[in-house]
Amino acid sequence: MENQNNFADQFSVQEVIRLSNSPAGRQLIDLLRRQDSSSFQSAMKSACAGQYQDAKQIIEKLLSDPEAQKLLKQLRG
């Protein structure tokens, strides 16, 4: 399995917004919400509070799912 840490570190805020609006990005967000909505909400709250390391740790756990990995590959192009 690829290391998803590099994925998050590669993108600016504008790129994250663009990717989240793409079909694969929307599918990934949907998947993360379905997997564990309370963890996803916790990650979003942490990010909004400026606790990016906490948010990143939560999201990294969610991204370890094989379906999430497939969508990440699509986002990478």
Q: How many E-type strands?
A: 0
Structural class: mainly alpha
Tell me the major beta sheet.
none
The run of helices and strands is HHHHHH
Number of helices: 6
Given as residue ranges, the uncertain stretches (5+ residues, pLDDT < 50) are 1-7
The amount of helix comes to: over 70%
Shape: globular
Oligomer kind: single chain
Span between termini: 17 Å
Beta-strand percentage?
Answer: under 5%
| CA-based gyration radius | 12 Å
Describe this protein's structure:
- The chain has 77 residues and is mostly helical.
- Helices cover 78% and strands 0% of the residues.
- Helix 3 crosses helix 4 and helix 4 packs antiparallel against helix 5.
- The radius of gyration is 12 Å and the shape is globular.
